[in-house]
């Protein structure tokens, strides 16, 4: 044994007995260091044979099943065998056994490796071994005693050799490599298996064994006809052929992939709950609301994958519900093309068939066999469909049967209850009966059936227990933008993308209308036609919402009434107009079924809803609130007399519920004026201005937003003569000041279309010279253009422009502003052209912008400037030198106010600024450096400026600078406030880092006869109650009382 191959080297004079004792003692220690309770070779055998035993057990468990399936795929089957195979088509226990077999092999390999390195044989086996023993002559008994008592005697080291260690070390390495390599290989197999299982294309043991285990081409094995694959390939090529019509894809490119955008699809039906107390924007949000617990399906293929709504099972019966024009048909065609292209594993080995429910109304579908019925779903000839039919009937789980447009079936619900009794596929019956047998599983059991429908067919599809119910919600704003982009690409006009999209997003009404893909198409088509029409020399877009909605209604009238005569469509539209008007009068957005005839239902302007109280009764609403409002406006203009229209405007202009209706009325009146040139209609338009109230020459959208609404109505008229008459003969002639930003928190954001209306009207206000405008950071280029037009067409004395951005990326560019001001049509010596106040907030002021500003001031466009505010303009230390250059060229005596708050200018920049102010002899009285990240280090420079006899600063604000502490205030008190030439009367240090320690120096300064402070803001600092009391007491000092000193040091 191994003990015989273990020998130790002792002194030659040692006795044999001693050598034997040494060998035994050292071998015992060798065993303790290198061996374990489990014999090494026993561990080797266990490591090698355990996975073999597991594999044998697995093969014995699945052998019979594998052989059975392998033989069945190579030999013809009897009908009984085929039936038995159908019954077992969902069995997958072979794949489960295989998974557990692989997992056990991975775990065993990892376990044996860990045990080898950490428990049994962590050190391997060394050939040489050093053994420490007592000196020669000691007995074994004494040696044991000494071993238990460390340090009693000097031990001697003996070198031993184990000749069997080399062989054991070799096997140690071999076993380690085998276990590690085997675990790695099996782990890789486990990952591969999991990936294939996640998107598996097998649905039974047969396919798993054929495709995964045996590596055979499953489809080719299953098909009994050699030309089956050829037929399927031919069918796929037929599906992929371009067949789209121009009324769906508008452009020369006809491939569906060129225009298809993924819709927002959610499980469960969306419930539209309209409340009479809702505001208009809240009503818009209802259209895009989804059930709280629904699941968003990101891609088309997700329709066929399991999820929580199917309890983890693959759905076999799917219903897709959507409003008219929402994209149901395009979705089904996308599925067909995805299947034919084989872009996802869910279509692997499947055969898709496509039906339209409108076909069931044809005579051919009144009495038809299953085979003929299915052939219609492929459009193939009898010869090519024969092999496909045999394959589908044998493997029904391979079929994806798509039925589009359940609402288009003209039959009644009785067919759902009275089906022909036999489930024989050879028996002929109606097409709808075959559909019901397919959806209920009586025919082609296991096939995947997908049905699309408008909500109007709820009484039909509610009778079927679908595995998955989803509703198409439509487009989000980013999808609308993507649609516009692809639309322009399809028409080979990439240059029109920005114009079309900016026009859509500039109007919230228009943007919300486009959530329905077909509406998005209509709007895109109308705008595209206007931009690309060679007869339209100006390439002008529809200037009013009325023109756009008129075109949309005309499109619906043309395409949805193609089967009706013109008179019928006109009658239906008039009925819808009356219904829309009455609905808004009574605050009704949802209507009962009995109010609609068949022609009205086919208009394409309605969406059907299920009644939450009586599910059997169907209800309707217009596809969008704006459509209902436009139809209501048409009813007013077409049926009311001019006098009655005026009274209607007077009585409804105060109600926000009617605002868009009135705006549409204004647009329709404009059309009447152009057509008939009647003053009666002019008076109707002027009726809108009676709502305008001008106080002291000012109008403020924040105080009365309806003023903007009046301007939008006048703009909708689209008649310069009418607008000029309104501005000259009404109170609008008295307007001097226009504002939509009273404060930084009280603003009214205007869209591009709003600005277009403001510009269209304000250019005729001859007295308008003051503008205080808030510009949204999301304002489009078209919006900036409108503001620029307004600045160029008005003689501005005071201009305050405020953006609303809280990050640098949201700042508004300032270059365009000054370019617009420099292009002003006013002459330089015009009394109104001299700007006295320029207030810019949240503009991006760069060095380039400052250069343009320098040019602006050099040309004396602002020679009367009194106040300059560059608040939150992204100015840093890099731009401060350029700003000082700007101050150097504008030594205007009227310039007294400079606000640079909320810019990261830092201490060094304050020093540079102070030097510039000192040497330019400016008459500056107000300097604001709030929230500029400055600290005590900038105070000396400010003190030098303040005590200069030429400095006129009376107000200094450094609020919200935490770097200013007690030391900074001490320097201000000693070196500035107590100086004779310091003219400071107001000091604002809100939310700095001041404590009670600064109070003694502050008291000395306030009591000094040279100190002129009468207002001191210390709110938000860290004063104690004792400190605040001390400061209150100083107000009673004679010098403080004389100048009316006021403290503000409230709560933080």
Main sheet characteristics? 12 strands, parallel
Query: Which percent band covers the strand fraction?
Result: 5-15%
- Kindly state the number of beta strands: 27
The percentage helix is: 40-55%
**Mean pLDDT score, rounded?**
76
Q: Quick one: CATH superfamily of one domain?
A: P-loop containing nucleotide triphosphate hydrolases
CATH architecture of one domain: 3-Layer(aba) Sandwich
Distance between the termini: 88 Å
CATH class of one domain: Alpha Beta
The 3D shape can be described as: flat
| CATH fold type of one domain | Rossmann fold
Strand line-up of the largest beta sheet: 14-15-16-17-19-21-22-23-24-25-26-27
Low-confidence stretches: 75-90, 137-153, 217-226, 244-256, 280-288, 562-567, 611-616, 805-811, 825-832
GO molecular function, one term: ATP binding
Subcellular location: Cytoplasm
Main location: cytoplasm
InterPro entries: Connexin_N_sf (IPR038359), LRR_dom_sf (IPR032675), NACHT_NTPase (IPR007111), NLRP_innate_immun_reg (IPR050637), P-loop_NTPase (IPR027417)
């Amino acid at each position: 044994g191994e003990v015989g191959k273990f020998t130790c080297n002792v002194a030659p004079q040692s006795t044999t007995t001693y050598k034997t004792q040494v060998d035994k003692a050292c071998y015992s220690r060798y065993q303790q260091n290198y061996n374990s309770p489990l014999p090494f070779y026993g561990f080797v055998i266990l490591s090698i044979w355990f996975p073999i035993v597991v594999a044998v057990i697995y093969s014995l468990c699945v052998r019979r099943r594998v052989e059975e399936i392998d033989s069945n795929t190579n030999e013809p089957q009897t009908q009984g065998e085929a039936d038995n195979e159908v019954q077992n088509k969902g069995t997958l226990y072979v794949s489960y056994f295989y998974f557990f077999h692989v997992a056990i092999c991975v775990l065993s390999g990892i376990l044996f490796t860990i045990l080898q390195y950490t428990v049994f044989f962590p050190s391997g086996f060394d050939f040489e071994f050093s053994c420490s023993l007592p000196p020669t002559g000691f007995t074994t008994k004494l040696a044991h005693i000494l071993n238990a008592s460390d340090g009693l005697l000097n031990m001697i080291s003996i070198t031993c050799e184990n000749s069997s260690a080399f062989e054991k070390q070799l096997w140690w390495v071999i076993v380690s490599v085998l276990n590690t390599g085997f675990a790695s290989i099996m782990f890789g197999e486990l990952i591969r298996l999991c990936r294939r299982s996640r998107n598996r294309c097998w649905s039974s043991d047969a396919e798993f064994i054929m495709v995964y285990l045996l590596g055979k081409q499953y489809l080719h094995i299953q098909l009994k006809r050699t030309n089956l694959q050829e037929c399927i390939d031919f069918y796929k090529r037929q599906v992929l052929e371009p067949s789209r019509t121009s009324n769906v894809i508008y452009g020369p490119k006809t491939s569906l992939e060129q225009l298809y955008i993924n819709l927002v699809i959610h499980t469960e039906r969306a419930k539209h709950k309209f409340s009479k107390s809702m505001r208009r924007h809240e009503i818009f949000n209802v259209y895009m609301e989804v059930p709280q617990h629904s699941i968003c399906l990101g891609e088309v293929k997700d329709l066929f994958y399991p999820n929580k709504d199917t309890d983890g099972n693959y759905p076999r019966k799917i219903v897709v519900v959507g409003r008219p024009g929402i994209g149901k048909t395009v979705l089904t065609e996308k599925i067909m093309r995805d299947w034919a292209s084989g872009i996802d594993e869910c279509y692997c080995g499947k055969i898709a068939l496509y039906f339209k429910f409108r076909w069931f109304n044809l005579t051919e579908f009144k009495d038809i066999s299953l085979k003929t019925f299915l052939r219609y779903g492929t459009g193939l000839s009898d010869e090519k469909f024969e092999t496909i039919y045999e394959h589908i009937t044998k493997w029904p789980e391979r079929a994806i049967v798509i039925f589009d447009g359940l609402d288009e079936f003209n039959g009644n619900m009785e067919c759902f209850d009275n089906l022909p009794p036999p489930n024989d596929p050879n028996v002929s019956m109606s097409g709808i009966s075959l559909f019901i047998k397919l959806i209920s599983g009586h025919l082609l059991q296991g096939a995947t059936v997908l049905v699309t429908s408008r909500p109007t067919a709820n009484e039909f599809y509610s009778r079927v227990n679908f595995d998955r119910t989803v509703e198409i919600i439509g487009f989000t704003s980013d999808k609308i933008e993507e649609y516009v982009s692809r639309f322009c690409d399809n028409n080979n006009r990439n240059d029109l993308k920005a114009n079309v999209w900016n026009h859509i997003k500039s109007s919230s009404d228009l943007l919300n209308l486009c959530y329905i893909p077909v509406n998005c198409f209509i709007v895109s088509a109308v705008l595209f036609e206007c931009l690309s029409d060679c007869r339209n020399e100006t390439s002008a877009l529809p200037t009013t919402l009325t023109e756009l909605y008129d075109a949309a209604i005309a499109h619906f009238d043309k395409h949805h009434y193609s089967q009706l005569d013109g008179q019928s469509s006109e009658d239906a539209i008039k009925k819808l107009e009356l219904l829309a008007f009455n609905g808004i009068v009574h605050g009704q957005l949802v209507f009962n079924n009995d109010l609609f005839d068949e022609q009205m239902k086919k208009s394409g302007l309605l969406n059907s809803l299920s009644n939450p109280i009586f599910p059997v009764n169907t209800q309707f609403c217009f596809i969008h609130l704006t459509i209902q409002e436009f139809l209501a406006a048409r009813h007013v203009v077409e049926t009311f007399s001019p006098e009655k229209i005026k009274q209607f405007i007077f009585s409804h202009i105060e109600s926000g519920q009617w605002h868009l209706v009135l705006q549409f009325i204004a647009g329709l009146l404009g059309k009447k004026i152009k057509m008939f040139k009647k003053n009666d209609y002019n008076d109707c338009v002027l009726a809108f201005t009676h709502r305008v109230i001008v106080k002291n020459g000012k109008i403020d959208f924040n105080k009365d937003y309806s003023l903007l609404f009046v301007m939008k109505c006048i703009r909708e008229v689209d008649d310069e003569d009418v607008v000029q008459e309104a501005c000259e003969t009404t109170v609008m002639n008295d307007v001097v000041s226009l504002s939509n930003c009273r404060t930084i928190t009280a603003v009214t954001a205007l869209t591009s279309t709003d600005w277009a209306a403001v510009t269209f009207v304000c250019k005729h206000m001859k007295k308008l010279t003051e503008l205080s405008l808030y510009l949204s950071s999301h304002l489009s280029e078209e919006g900036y253009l409108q503001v620029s037009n307004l600045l160029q067409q008005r003689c501005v004395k005071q201009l305050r422009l405020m953006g609303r951005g809280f990050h640098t990326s949201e700042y508004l560019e300032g270059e365009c502003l000054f370019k617009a001001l420099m292009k002003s049509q006013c002459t330089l010596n015009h009394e109104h052209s001299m700007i006295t106040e320029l207030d810019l907030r949240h503009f991006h002021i760069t060095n380039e912008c400052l250069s343009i500003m320098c040019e602006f001031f050099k040309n004396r466009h602002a020679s009367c400037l009194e106040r300059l505010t560059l608040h939150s303009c992204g100015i840093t230390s890099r731009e401060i030198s350029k700003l000082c250059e700007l101050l150097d060229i504008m030594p205007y005596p009227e310039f007294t106010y400079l606000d640079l708050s909320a810019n990261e200018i830092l201490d060094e920049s304050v020093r540079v600024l102070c030097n510039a102010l000192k040497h330019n002899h400016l008459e500056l009285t107000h300097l604001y450096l709030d929230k500029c990240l400055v600290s005590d280090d900038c105070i000396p420079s400010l003190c030098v400026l303040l005590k200069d006899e030429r400095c006129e600063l009376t107000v200094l604000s450094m609020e919200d600078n935490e770097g200013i502490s007690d030391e900074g205030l001490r320097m201000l008190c000693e070196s500035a406030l107590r100086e004779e030439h310091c003219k400071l009367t107001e000091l604002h240090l809100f939310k700095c880092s001041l404590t009670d320690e600064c109070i003694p120096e502050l008291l000395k300064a306030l009591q000094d006869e040279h100190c002129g402070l009468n207002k001191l803001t210390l709110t938000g600092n860290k004063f104690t109650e004792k400190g605040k009391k001390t400061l209150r007491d100083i107000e009673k000092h004679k010098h403080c009382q004389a100048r009316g000193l006021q403290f503000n040091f409230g709560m933080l």
